[in-house]
Amino acid sequence: MGHLTAKSAYMSLQQRLNKMPVGAPGTGTLYEILKLMFTEDEARMAAQFPMKFSTIGALSRKLNESETTLQPKVDAMCEKGVVLDLFLGGKRRYMLNPTVVGFFEFSMMRVRDEMDQKHLAKLYHRYMLEEPDFIASMNTRTAETSLFRALVHEETLPD
Q: Bigger pLDDT: 144 or 34?
């Protein structure tokens, strides 16, 4: 029965990430990535993060957990690069990182013994470049602005 609650936590996280502008479509490889990057408890928490920056107090109320027990969990998620923390308005605020540009990049900027980054890089490559879901979503999610676009280097244009 425990495997069903774990699956539910990662499904909820995928659905939450998929609400972001870049999104997180797909299942197979994406779930492998999520299971490497998030514990089951972290996935359950992350799936409930608000869409905007929030204080630890706001997260505490949303997740129905005391600030004292929540703070080290959120700090650990920040350390892994799956949660972004910034000082805004004199307070530390947190937001779930999107997949791209977000925890895919941040996770590769942190060298950790407990993470097989070579394996993670292969999963990212497979998810983003070999499987159809992610690339297809890039063509349908963004009507006016695309992540993949040519930018003119104006200095090279003739007068």
A: 34
Three-class SS state of 86: strand
- Label each residue of 35-85 as H, E or C: HHHCCHHHHHHHCCCCCCCECHHHHHHHHCCCHHHHHHHHHHHHHHCCEEE
pLDDT for the residue numbered 156: 83
Whole-number Å distance between alpha carbons of 112 and 106: 12
Sign of the alpha-carbon torsion through 60, 18, 129, 141: negative
0.90 surpassed by pTM: no
- Backbone φ and ψ for 48, nearest 5 degrees, come out as -105, 0
